[in-house]
Amino acid sequence: FSCCQDVLRRLDKTFQAFFARLRRREKPGFPRFRSFRRYDSITFPSYGDGCRLLEDDLRPLKRGLAHLGRAQRRHSRRKRGSRRRRKAAALVGVPREAVAFQATE
User: Fold this and answer.
1) pTM
2) Residue, of 15 and 101, whose pLDDT is higher
3) How far is CA 19 from the centre of its chain?
């Protein structure tokens, strides 16, 4: 998988919603694309594919994101389970991240 697949998934979701409006006989309008200014995130479908944690003595709270550099990491609580997906975004030049976890049995 690659983060480029997220772009195609968003595009597919837009067209599915468009054709669903056609099936419901609603006024479909044009496919509702988001502005490029609102596209401020990248989803890495699997952990380790373009992103990884960098836990060394010099930077214990950093993570590496492919082509984005390093970003600050903040934990609100201890996560349990395995990392499944990462979404990285930049808000006013400050990288931030959301991580989805899959619970282990």
Assistant:
1) 0.45
2) 15
3) 25
Report the candidate in 37, 38, 40, 44 with the shortest Cα–Cα distance to residue 9: 44
Give me the domain span that covers residue 4.
Answer: 1-35
Which of 59-63's residues contact partners 24+ apart within 8 Å by CB, and which partners? 63/97
Pairwise CA distance, residues 51 & 54, whole Å: 9
Are residues 52 and 83 both part of a single domain?
Answer: yes
- pLDDT > 90: percent of the chain: 3
Helix, strand, coil content of the chain in percent (nearest 5) = 20, 35, 50
- Tell whether 60 and 17 lie within a shared domain: no
Any residues with CB less than 8 A from the CB of 2 and at least 6 apart, and which?
Answer: 45, 49, 50
